[in-house]
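Known limitations

Structure tokens in this collection are predictions and should be treated as such. Users comparing against experimental data should check residue numbering before alignment. To illustrate the layout, the record for F-box domain-containing protein is reproduced below. The input appears on top and the generated tokens appear beneath it.
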Amino acid sequence: MIDTLPNEVLWLILNHLDYHDIEQLQLISRLSQTALHYTQQHYPFHCKINSLLRLFEAITPSERQSKETKLEFSQQILQQICKQVEILPKMDHRTKFTELLDIVQQFIVARILSPDLKAGIELDYANLCLEIRSQYLHTPSIRVLHDPKYRRRSTKHPLAPFLPRDYTSIWRHHCATPHTPIHTRFALFFGSLFDVTSLYLESNLDGSFEECTREALVTGNVEDLLIMCVAADRPVDVDRMCMMVTHAGEQLRQYLETMDTWVTTEPTPQQELRMQQNQQLLDSESHATAAASSTLSSYSPSSSDPPEWLIPDRYKVQPDTILRLKLMDNLYKKGWHWFQ
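Generated tokens:
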């Protein structure tokens, strides 16, 4: 029905849609021209980045892998961002730069997760992302648009394009679901982003790598873990990886014990007030809670359930996970490169 609407009414509808929804409308032949014209007029940055990515995929593999091509495409993408940012007041530079960089990162990862992506392009995309990151880090005029105080920024919280931490949510989701070919493609792309393009990023990359390793081990996702390690050129030291999980559990227990001691022996004024409020709340609700609990015949999860990071199984690696990882790593070293 939407394709029978007058253009004036259709444009009113498009005003309430985001770019990705309008892009889907371009697949409808009677709406394609109108939707394309609308995106070009209202989303010029999106269209330009999409055009560059389509061109990047269309060229031959040898051209994509050449240093000149990577440099050219990375500079064009950064120039598109800078042109949009430079015309704004300085106080808006960081916000706008972050917004546009997020769009680029989302477009590229959407292509990585797309089922129609050609085999092997995920590594070319990873190399392009690393080139963009390198150009960003080594061009002060670009960095200052994103972070005016970048020279004093802590290495614990660096700002740079295509850091693995921006994609850890996808990694966690893949760890919680059965392995698929798209998981393989993403793990190859994701692992390549751990390349240390600057010492400024080293500690952050190591921290993200350990976090992702622990997530894969506790969920038993050894396939993606091995692929990530190979792509990142990191050794598969199974015993050391398991120690990461154990050490994280010990750190958590020590933190909780320390916090309990601080709160009971040397509470701050804020903690004292919070404890008083909690006690008052418990007293006022004790009778109602007792009456409600007597009517429950079975347990039902609630908002009082412990968060995931407090569950003991989050700090255990199952024996079969260790065995499978050692076996697959041994087979890979002997020449069974099943994911390449």
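For this record: The two ends are 46 Å apart (CA to CA). The mean pLDDT is 83. Please report discrepancies through the issue tracker.
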